[in-house]
Write a structure and sequence with these properties.
- It is a single chain.
- The chain is an all-alpha fold.
- It has a single domain, classed as Ribonucleotide Reductase, subunit A, CATH 1.10.620.20.
- It is about 55% helix and about 5% strand.
- It has a two-stranded antiparallel ribbon. The chain has a two-stranded antiparallel ribbon with strand order 3-4.
- Helix 13 packs parallel to helix 15.
- The termini are far apart.
Length: about 550
């Protein structure tokens, strides 16, 4: 289709739009934003007549690569450390894609622009396609990898999983609350424009370095659609900026959306790239270097900062704090340590770090060994059952963290943890911005303005609280993370499949019951809570207890 005929077809589609006069529309997903019917243009005109042949060709390449991987014996050459972490990644990533698809119809009712509706409809189809090829990728891994356990049951447990609940919180943010906040600011303007760079570009590069060329094929096919999604978000943003009343909400939502994406995406992708790889070339980029290039330079400086010319206040302080979290406060390293501390509550095998890994981390993050080296040495020492308990119960100078109520990533940078009393319950937050999100941003009133569509953060959000007081063997059984023999655990703190070196439910039955820090905190009086927070803020790095002299 020529460019001229495409433009005509795109224009003709808009004539098919109408507003029914025979009933009063019901606004199921509302917004507190206001829009005028300004003639904002879709910068990437696309119609289904040209869209489907293009996507069909991309699918042919994806499924052709899948067939080639099987015939080329890729699954006997890929690094086990890498594919084990994909059990977590590929269980989570289809859910945000499906949520993104569901979020597009929310925008149809609140953005009065037929031209943008066309782009949003095509994005909806994109997102369904993405989830399909991603789940097919997981199926291929499960059918051909040496240890399929974990690939087969991960989608069942988003409601009660140690890590999956974090991904669920992230994905459901696309479809809950204010329609513009969720489907436009949080999804297209921040998640897709900023963080898909590390998700769909940087991570596939690491996959290839570990012998996995299927994930790069699938995720580069996904990323090739993101330019359309970015344009949807940018066009909606410009429409919102045309009304002065929206600036207060835009600035609120940029702060929330940026911070929640940073807490979840950096935690997950940073861990996969840094701790799921066997590629320790000194000249390859660390996650911090990738983040600085892909997000700080390409997104923040090239996309966000120019918005200041429209009078929009950009959250400079949060971008700088996010960088500080990654570079100075060891956020990614703390997350990886937390995942491996609770290995018994997960569904993949977590390889310990070796001397080669230690050397690389020290080269890329000077001072890493002094903070984390001893803990990882203990992790390796305690990896196989030999009369001891899993590492979470052993004395390795690690205090189990409290969960953040908002992002659900635990409060791992201990100095930043804050608390607040909401509806008679004390909640812990990993950072002041997460407290602000829950206590101020997600409320029916914001800075004196009525915001009834914003929603609330509610429900049983902390994984530990769901199982407080349970025996660990019963917890793992309830989550379904047990192998076919009915006793061997799916998760292991090593990669050795020798049955004599694998942990079983019998090993867990002798462990102390699971204790939720958040439940224990709420059992304290006011003085006890203040003392708890003061002690917690003095802990770390690497989860170490507070110094006795403090």
């Amino acid at each position: 289709m020529s460019r001229q005929s495409l433009a005509k077809a795109h224009q003709k589609i808009q004539e098919l739009s109408w507003e029914p006069q025979y009933h009063e529309p019901y606004m199921k997903y509302g917004t507190d934003y206001t829009f005028r019917k300004a003639a904002k243009k879709d910068p990437l005109k696309q119609v289904l007549r040209s869209y489907f042949p293009m996507q069909e060709e991309k699918d042919h390449r994806v499924y052709g690569a899948s067939d080639g991987a099987i015939r080329g014996n890729m699954f006997r050459q890929v690094q086990e450390r890498w594919l084990e972490w994909q059990k977590l990644f590929l269980s989570i990533i289809p859910l945000p894609e499906v949520s993104a698809a569901r979020s597009m119809p929310m925008l149809f009712h609140v953005v009065p622009n037929p031209e943008l509706h066309n782009g949003q409809a095509i994005q909806m189809i994109d997102e369904v396609r993405h989830s399909t090829i991603q789940q097919n990728l997981k199926r291929l891994y499960m059918n051909n990898y040496i240890d399929p356990a974990g690939f087969n049951n991960s989608l069942r447990n988003f409601h009660s999983d140690y890590c999956g609940t974090i991904g669920r919180q992230f994905a459901e943010g696309f479809i809950t609350g204010d329609a513009i906040t969720a489907a436009s600011i949080y999804l297209t303007i921040v998640a897709e424009t900023a963080f898909t760079n590390t998700l769909f570009v940087a991570m596939p590069a690491e996959a290839a370095a570990n012998g996995d060329y299927l994930l790069p094929t699938v995720f580069h096919s996904v990323q090739s659609d993101e330019s359309r999604h970015i344009s949807n978000g940018y066009a909606t943003l410009l429409m919102a900026l045309s009304d002065e009343d929206n600036r207060q909400l835009l600035e609120r939502d940029l702060r929330y959306a940026w911070w929640n994406n940073h807490r979840v995406v950096d935690a997950a992708i940073g861990t996969f790239i840094e701790y799921g790889t066997k590629d320790r070339r000194k000249d390859r980029e660390s996650y911090a270097e990738m983040w600085r290039r892909w997000i700080y330079d390409d997104y923040y400086r090239s996309y966000l900062v120019p918005l200041e010319k429209y009078g929009l206040v950009i959250p400079h302080d949060l971008i700088e704090e996010s960088w500080k979290q990654i570079w100075e406060k060891g956020y990614v390293h703390e997350v990886a340590q937390f995942f491996c501390t609770g290995w018994l509550a997960n569904y993949w095998r977590m390889d310990g770090m070796t001397d080669t890994d230690f050397e690389w981390f020290e080269y890329k993050y000077p001072g890493w060994y002094d903070k984390y080296g001893a803990w990882w040495e203990n992790y390796n020492r305690l990896a196989t059952p030999n009369g001891h308990n899993p590492i979470v119960f052993e004395d390795v100078d690690y205090v189990y963290p409290a969960r953040c109520w908002t992002c659900m990533v635990p409060c791992l940078v201990r100095e930043d943890m804050v608390m607040a009393d909401i509806d008679g319950v004390t909640r812990t937050y990993c950072h002041e911005v997460c407290r602000w999100t829950d206590v101020e941003a997600f409320r029916p009133t914001y800075q004196g303005r009525e915001t009834p569509n914003m929603g609330r953060l509610v429900g049983h959000r902390e994984w530990e609280t769901l199982y407080h007081g349970w025996n660990w063997a019963d917890v793992v059984t309830d989550m379904g993370f047990v192998r076919d023999d009915g006793k061997t655990m799916t998760a292991q703190p090593h990669l050795d499949l020798n049955p004599k070196k694998m942990w079983t439910l019998d090993h867990l039955r002798r462990c102390p019951p699971l204790q939720s820090p958040n439940v224990l905190i709420n059992g304290l009086d006011a003085a006890g809570k203040a003392a708890f927070q003061a002690d917690y803020n003095r802990q770390g790095p690497a989860g170490r207890p507070a110094p006795a002299s403090a």
